[in-house]
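User: Could you check the structure of this?
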Amino acid sequence: YQAGRLQKLVDDLERRLTDFPEWGEGHHLRGLGLMGLQHFDQAVSSLQRASELLPGRAEIRDHLGVACVRLGDDEGVRRAFEQALSLNPLRAETWNNAADSALSRGRFDEAFQYGLQAVRLKPDLHESSYCLLQAAYRLDELAPGDDSAKSIQADRGGALTSAIKTLQTGIERPEQGAFFSPTRYCA
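Assistant: Sure, the predicted structure tokens are below.
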């Protein structure tokens, strides 16, 4: 996988999974390889099987959410990220992937909240800073009467200002900031 030989990885894993169909990590790695090859339908199947075999692994649900985003499966996205965040609410990468997903679907309030939590959990995860700033910029661009931006703008004096302050502060522990419930924003 790390060497970028994804087709070989997928081929090798398919042979091994024939002999060991209950090997959860094999299904997980196969799903990642298939995502890299942009075979998202097959990746979702592998990742779903991996999540059944390894039900406590949040990162598998996170990867499943990313694959569902690529398929345009909004319900699958919501369910996967909600489950991932329920399993491990302190995994910044999942909050970031949820932010990126919400941003790509035009759900800027959700993207802002997810990105904010990712930055609070792991300030050096640069992808979350990007998602947070993009969501904040889009929220501030919305018309003043737009309901999706009202809470952010009223509570923080502007989403972009709030995002910049959060990034400047470099909050390192989630208990220093508001913690967001995954079920509130995975809608």
